[in-house]
Amino acid sequence: MLIFAHRGASGYAPENTLKAMALALELEAEAVELDVHNVEGELVVFHDRRLEGKSNGKGLIHRHTLAELEKLSVRGEPIPTLWQVLELLNARCIVNIELKGIHTGEPMKALYHRAVAELGYSPEQLLISSFNHPELADFKADVPEARIAPLLGSLPLDGAAIAGQMQAWSLHLDVSFISQTIVDQAHAMGVKVYVYTVDDGDDIRALAAMGVDGVFANYPDLARKALGEP
Ligand code: G3P
Ligand code: CA
């Protein structure tokens, strides 16, 4: 089972920061997940649309300049750009980039090619996901070699078919809506199932027993231990 350090090792360090990503590597996470927004054409790693709550800033993140964001922090840690995170991880793990904000697909296309050409990432190491399925489909149309993953926050009747039609690598599902049926339907389409966000050992073992292919965990080391791995 593939374990993604969710927003980096966010159980131990401020989420979506370089510190959380470095810690994920230290904990030998095979994969990390992060969220991006478009700020002045640059992809910035941050979860919420608004700055308050997760940082010491205020307002919608995409209405700010990069220079303004540089002055802010997430519990003492800077808000990184996606490029800074990709440089730090240096193709040492799988990176799931969630296109969170609006207009993130276009800058992601350019960054995807740069990450492969300049940092040595392989297409197998970059997984682009989003709740915004049109943005994801557009990304796949322009970067056909890319692995993409639709996110579902609920369970429509045709959840697996959506992923199959999009030629998705994986379908990302909320743990609240997981069922054996959707796992089997996705697998029948040749699509993997990754489930968010799971930190309870019993839950992780139950998902493994259902054939779920991966989970997003805030404590990736504990998730691994729950599966009996060192
Ligand atoms: O990508 C899985 C998960 O991160 C989606 O939910 O709100 O944590 O971005 P959220
Ligand atoms: Ca996310």
From TrEMBL:
One of its GO terms (biological process) is lipid metabolic process. Residues 1-227 form the GP-PDE domain. InterPro entries: GP_PDE_dom (IPR030395), PLC-like_Pdiesterase_TIM-brl (IPR017946). It holds the Pfam family GDPD. Transmembrane segments: none annotated. One of its GO terms (molecular function) is phosphoric diester hydrolase activity. This is Glycerophosphoryl diester phosphodiesterase. The lineage of its organism: Bacteria, Pseudomonadati, Pseudomonadota, Gammaproteobacteria, Alteromonadales.
